[in-house]
Write a structure and sequence with these properties.
about 220 residues, alpha/beta, eight-stranded parallel β-barrel, 11 helices, about 50% helix, globular, binds erythose-4-phosphate
């Protein structure tokens, strides 16, 4: 399973990247706003840092302008994936940009039918938003399962990029379900390491090291 980091904060990406935890990055207009940076500048910096796909989202809603924006975004670096919303105009832009050989991430997916359309339009990634479905009392993980089944039934190569991840259990369930990629905020990825028995066990070992004066160096 690939790990993408869902942020436009350079320091947070660099920290996880140094540990080999970053296979790609996703951004969106809200994350760019939060960073306070210019979209082109910050996206370029992220692409210099990370080898894998870096999703940068278009701002237009009509296909023609989305395609023009996408063509500008892919000039930033070879590893740009143009992110387009799951609308008919977004799918039109997806088809054109993917036919031109660019990676496209179709975002704001909330149903398996939408995911089916995105795959047929040549999407490289489909981004189902788990957390936002859970927020309204629906089952985000059921959507991932449905898309996995449908894509496998017909051999679609579009990668399932589980997005809007809020908890470590979303990551675990995505891995169990066979999502190709998860994208999560750095804090959620970092909290995957937490286990009280690890902390407790280490505390005991440290106490015994001190008591027995165990030294290696
Ligand atoms: C994915 O590409 C989106 O940027 C992101 O996962 C949305 O997450 P949110 O619902 O927490 O805003």
């Amino acid at each position: 399973m690939k790990f993408f980091v869902d942020t436009a904060e350079i320091d947070a990406i660099a920290e996880l990247n140094a540990l080999g935890m970053v296979d790609g990055v996703t951004t969106n207009p809200s994350l760019i706003k939060k960073s306070g940076r210019d979209i082109i500048e910050v996206t370029k910096e992220i692409c210099e840092l990370v080898d894998g796909p870096v999703s940068a989202e278009v701002t237009a809603t009509d296909a023609e302008t989305m395609i023009a924006e996408g063509r500008k975004l892919v000039e930033i670096a070879e590893n740009i994936a143009v992110k387009v919303p799951l609308t008919w105009d977004g799918l039109k832009a997806c088809k054109t940009l993917s036919d031109d050989g660019h990676m496209v991430n179709v975002t704001l997916c909330f149903s398996a039918n939408q995911a089916l359309l995105a795959a047929k339009a040549g999407a490289t990634f489909i981004s189902p938003f788990i957390g936002r479905l859970d927020d309204i009392n629906l089952d985000g993980m059921e959507l991932i399962e449905d898309i996995r089944t449908i894509y496998d039934n017909y051999g679609f190569e579009t990668q399932i990029l589980a997005a809007s991840i809020r908890t470590v259990n979303h990551i675990l369930d995505s891995a169990r379900t066979g999502a190709d990629v998860i994208t999560a905020p750095p804090a959620v990825i970092k909290s995957m390491i937490n286990h009280p028995l690890t902390d407790k066990g280490l505390a005991t070992f440290l106490a015994d090291i001190k008591a027995a004066d165990i030294k290696i160096l």
